[in-house]
């Protein structure tokens, strides 16, 4: 990540005292009008104005404007290096990495908990109530002066960049994890976590498609898991799961069926699965078999092992 700190607290929008609406008269005010009302900017503060029909609405709107101003200031001061990944194909060809610069969007930064937690209790507030006697309509005109210093800006930029770096590291971890698949559950967990991550960052994030690509590549792992027969003899079948030439394990128990065998009992021995069964009702002249199957994601993996009685 690259930080560009532009001390630009003068970004606060120019503000003029709002003209009174025609037909409305001032009927109430929260106190003496502060000298900062109507000023374009005050160093170290954000000043916003809002008018809404109710006091709750005007407070909410004013604070939303404060948050937007803070987010805009942070966005102006953040520029990140974003990695774009060319998706690997399933057969394992190498991916290339390209670094691009991206100025972060105000809407994305506004979702930061530190910004969403901005409260009117920290602000100086002045409001006026106007009413139209003929129509009985009214509205509140509110001014908010919220403290936002250079230190606050630097702190938010730092927090944002730290959070984004952590996301980059998580993505890189999933990328590296594809080369070290040891269990089926590892694939399950990665797909779940990547799905949550794609929702967290949103489709407007430059990394969104990289995350979606990783989801697809983890799903493709299911398509390339095979059941390998290690040993096949009457009464006992030993199998293992193989992905990309390496054995992998699962806590999932297989489904088993046969045209003649019964009373299946499966035990895990390291990375092998030993299936014992009763072959009493199997005959030499028949094509005797045991079919073993797993469901990984939406993919069914099956293997039919034929066996002779002697």
The share of residues in helices is 25-40%
Low-confidence stretches: 1-17, 85-97
Please outline the major beta sheet.
5 strands, antiparallel
Class by alpha and beta content: alpha+beta
Distance from first to last alpha carbon: 67 Å
What number is the mean pLDDT?
Answer: 87
Order of helices and strands: EEEHEEHHEEHHHEEEEEEEE
Please compute the radius of gyration using only Cα atoms. 32 Å
Number of helices: 6
Outline, from the CA principal axes? elongated
Count every beta strand, where a strand is a DSSP E run of 2 or more residues: 15
What is the beta-strand fraction? 25-35%
Detailed description of the structure:
The protein has six helices and 15 strands. With 310 residues, it is α+β, with helices and mostly antiparallel strands. The strands form four sheets. Strands 8, 9, 10, 12 and 13 form a five-stranded antiparallel β-sheet that branches. The chain has a four-stranded antiparallel β-sheet with strand order 2-6-7-3, with helices on one face. Helix 1 packs across helix 4 and helix 5 packs antiparallel against helix 6. The chain is 30% helix and 34% strand.
């Amino acid at each position: 990540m690259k930080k560009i700190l532009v001390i630009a607290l003068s970004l606060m929008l120019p503000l003029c005292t709002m003209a009174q609406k025609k037909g409305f008269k001032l009927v109430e005010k929260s106190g003496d009008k502060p000298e900062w009302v109507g000023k374009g900017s005050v160093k170290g503060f954000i000043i916003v104005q809002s008018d809404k029909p109710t006091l709750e609405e005007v407070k909410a709107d004013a604070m939303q404007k404060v948050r937007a101003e803070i987010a805009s200031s942070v966005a102006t001061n953040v520029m990140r290096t974003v990695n774009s990944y060319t998706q690997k194909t399933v057969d394992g060809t190498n991916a290339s990495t390209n670094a691009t610069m991206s100025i972060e969007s105000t809407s994305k930064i506004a979702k930061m908990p530190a910004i969403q937690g901005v409260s009117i209790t920290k602000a100086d507030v002045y409001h006026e109530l106007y009413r139209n006697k003929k129509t009985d309509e009214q509205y509140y005109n509110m001014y908010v002066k919220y403290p936002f210093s250079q230190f606050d800006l630097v702190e938010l930029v730092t927090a944002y960049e730290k959070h984004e770096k952590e996301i980059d590291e998580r993505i890189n971890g999933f990328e590296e994890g594809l080369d070290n698949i040891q269990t089926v559950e590892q694939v399950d967990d990665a797909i779940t976590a990547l799905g949550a991550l794609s929702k967290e960052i949103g489709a407007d994030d430059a990394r969104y498609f990289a995350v979606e690509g990783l989801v697809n590549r983890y799903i493709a792992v299911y398509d390339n898991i095979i059941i390998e027969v290690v040993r096949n003899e009457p009464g006992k079948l030993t199998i293992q799961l193989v992905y990309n030439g390496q054995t992998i394990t699962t806590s999932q128990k297989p489904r088993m069926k046969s045209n003649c065998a019964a009373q299946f009992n499966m035990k895990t021995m390291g990375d092998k699965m030993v299936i014992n069964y009763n072959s009493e009702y199997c005959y030499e002249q028949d094509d005797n078999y045991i079919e073993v199957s797993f469901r990984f994601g939406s993919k069914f993996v099956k293997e039919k092992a034929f066996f002779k009685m002697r």
